[in-house]
Amino acid sequence: MKWRVAAExxxxxxxxxxxxxxxxxxxxxAALTDELPDDLQEAYARLRETAVEFGDQRIYASGSCIxxxxxxxxxxxxxxxxxxxxxxxxxxALKAPQVRRADRKSKTKFANILKITHRDQVEAPMxxxxxxxxxxxxxxxxxxxxxxKPTRKKRRSK
Length: 158
What we know:
Structural class: alpha+beta
Order of helices and strands: EEHHEEEEEEH
Distance between the termini: 80 Å
Strand order of the largest sheet: 3-4-5-6-8-7
Oligomer: single chain
Radius of gyration: 22 Å
Helix content: 25-40%
Number of helices: 3
Largest sheet: 6 strands, antiparallel
Shape: extended
């Protein structure tokens, strides 16, 4: 989009001159991870490798996050200067030292927010939680299938 007046973009805080093209929403994984310190880049690479092993999914950058989704997002990574903020969507709130907080996001899902500072943190139980989040849509779909109503037997007329 072309800007009519010079101003600071309220999304990315970049100064944009009048008439200049700017689209901060078309970002990439590389753009979000390039300037991270090496230990965080390694942690992100391990997170990505782990997720890819689960199976078919879509991995894409959106705004300031990298989304991992099947039909819907099951976790995302928000790279920060000194850590990776990871939100894992599960059917329960986690209670563990790695979990900074758990927010209810719907009737069936909680966003469990984790703080990752090193590659070694991307191991069990965190990898188990990621797999559980990946498999959650299958479990929810199985639960929501309507149960067949028992059919009444017809009475015989005499």
